[in-house]
């Protein structure tokens, strides 16, 4: 989704995990395996963000797995017997559907008494992600704080619940392999800037000096459900420096801060955009040898009718279009005063 503003102013992933049952210790010989993937693609900004156009986790990625043994009962969205508690799984890359590409230690195993040992699996990504505070036993409210520098931002993902799994009947269709589907819980927001005309032909250069945001909430609570999650308690209105480096502008849009779409994603807490969410754009205009003039423009982001909120998994690009108001001239001449006759008698 791309929003434009005119500034008139001058995986498939596999992991293997399971744990020994207190009931069937002697007969447990089948390791629990997994495959998983990111259900929706986004654009890479840092070491955790999944590339647009792929559903595979990044090579070397780590995620955290929980499993619950509900006995003979079906999963009911509550933690009973914790079977795996925060197990870190590493994906080696190069085989997103191959469980051997996913490693953890020690291995856990499927109980043989399937009727009385239904296992339900849940996970979050990435392991060690800055700002993620997981609840005890994995199921419940997650606290999250978004980073303010794109290179440090975290593609916080939760998995859909893989409920009521047993070795001979897993959701991947392969015995013993559990399929984990991750979904993105944040909003990806990007900013680009261009001019509405080629001012260079008149000897004018326009240089972007900075873009900043005010009023953006950076903290919140995320509570999972079986196939999705819900945000609440968003807070921490923060000012963000989106761009502080000089960038020459033209009619070709550039992404900020580094100028490449691949690296300029802001991963933000989903939120309703209040009137205080303001973008401030500062740019310099210089013509020939004349002194440069610095202009400042502000945009209230919720004035766009189509984007009143940042929702989970949305990909929003704001385009700020700088347009100058040329100084123009017309001319007219004041008429002569009414004729005044002067008469002299000369003898």
Question: What are its keywords?
Answer:
mainly beta, seven-stranded antiparallel sheet, Immunoglobulin-like, single chain, eight-stranded mixed sheet, 2 domains
Question: What is the element layout, followed by pairings?
Answer:
Blueprint: E1 2-8, E2 33-38, E3 62-69, E4 81-91, E5 102-103, E6 119-125, E7 132-133, E8 142-145, E9 157-159, E10 162-165, E11 177-184, E12 187-195, E13 204-224, E14 229-243, E15 247-248, E16 254-256, E17 266-268, E18 271-272, E19 278-287, E20 293-300, E21 309-310, E22 315-323
Parallel strand pairs: 1-22, 2-11, 12-22
Antiparallel strand pairs: 3-4, 3-6, 4-5, 6-9, 6-10, 7-8, 8-13, 9-11, 12-16, 12-17, 13-14, 13-15, 13-19, 18-21, 19-20
What kind of sheet is the major sheet? 8 strands, mixed
Which structural class do the helices and strands define?
mainly beta
- Write down the overall mean pLDDT: 86
Could you say which overall geometry the principal axes of the C-alpha atoms support? elongated
Strand content: 35-45%
Low-confidence stretches: 8-28, 39-45
What is the CATH topology descriptor of the largest domain? Immunoglobulin-like
Give the tally of β-strands: 22
Q: What is the N-to-C order of secondary-structure elements (H for helix, E for strand)?
A: EEEEEEEEEEEEEEEEEEEEEE
Mind telling me which CATH architecture of the largest domain this is?
A: Sandwich
CATH top level assignment of the largest domain: Mainly Beta
Count of spatially separate domains: 2
Alpha-carbon distance between the two ends = 94 Å
Round the Cα radius of gyration to an integer and report it: 30 Å
Q: How many DSSP helices?
A: 0
Give the helix level as a range of percent: under 10%
